[in-house]
Write a structure and sequence with these properties.
Blueprint: E1 18-28, E2 32-46, E3 49-59, E4 67-81, E5 85-96, E6 106-118, E7 123-134, E8 139-152, E9 155-165, E10 172-182, E11 188-196, E12 205-212
Antiparallel strand pairs: 1-2, 1-12, 2-3, 3-4, 4-5, 5-6, 6-7, 7-8, 8-9, 9-10, 10-11, 11-12
Length: 216
């Protein structure tokens, strides 16, 4: 599973853009360790429109497929804004390294994003729903839910749930709890845990991320 980076959500990138990199180290099948690496780059094109790139890769040397990867590149546009709400849509090209038989590696993804802030901006809630398809008929879907709270200017706490029905692989539901600490430069360090909550093996994992802006 390749969840979207935390809190990248429905908010169009701040002035100058933003990037998030994440590393996940976890256990699968009680004895197999795996690692995930992902990145998220958002660069504004206009006040309500931005360019987005999001690659992801997983390594598991004991699995039948020792590595998997995918990437999305597209454009996100916020078509509605109010003081507390944002609605946006994102569309772009999709690449998947190991598609099911009969499907090509290339396709498209369309993502709807909704965000709401509350408590004088200290809290936010994001919903992301994505439909994905590869040439040849392989289809998938995702739903990402995020709740965030800022107890202080330099701290952000988040709870997330990722529902993934991928174009290849098994369906999963995972929950993630993380904390981000921002420094004076504006960069942030994210640390937390992730686990499956769909009734299968827990697959506990450590999440480590870095947040920043292009040029930092």
């Amino acid at each position: 599973m390749a969840p979207a980076p935390a809190a990248a959500g429905a908010w169009v990138a701040p002035e100058g853009g933003q990037w998030i990199t994440s590393t996940v180290l976890g256990e699968r099948d009680d004895e197999t360790f795996y690692s995930e690496g992902s990145a998220y780059l958002e660069m504004p094109l206009r006040p309500d429109t931005s360019f987005v790139v999001a690659p992801w890769v997983e390594s598991n040397q004991y699995a039948e497929t020792p590595w998997r990867a995918e990437a999305v590149a597209g454009v996100k546009h916020a078509f509605y804004r109010s003081n507390d709400n944002v609605l946006a849509i994102q569309a772009g090209a999709l690449w998947v390294s190991h598609p099911d038989e009969g499907c090509s590696e290339g396709g498209a993804e369309v993502r709807f994003l909704g965000g709401r802030s509350a408590g004088d901006g200290r809290m936010f809630f994001n919903v992301e729903a994505a439909g994905r398809a590869l040439s040849g008929g392989c289809e998938g879907a995702r739903l990402d839910l995020t709740a965030g709270y800022r107890p202080g200017e330099n701290w952000l706490a988040m709870g997330q749930v990722f529902l993934d029905s991928p174009v290849e692989g098994d369906d999963t539901v995972k929950a993630q709890l993380t904390v981000v600490r921002f420094g004076r430069s504006g960069r942030g360090i994210q640390v937390g845990i992730r686990a499956r909550i769909d009734g299968g093996a827990l697959e506990p994992a450590l999440v480590i991320g870095l947040w920043g802006r292009p040029g930092d």
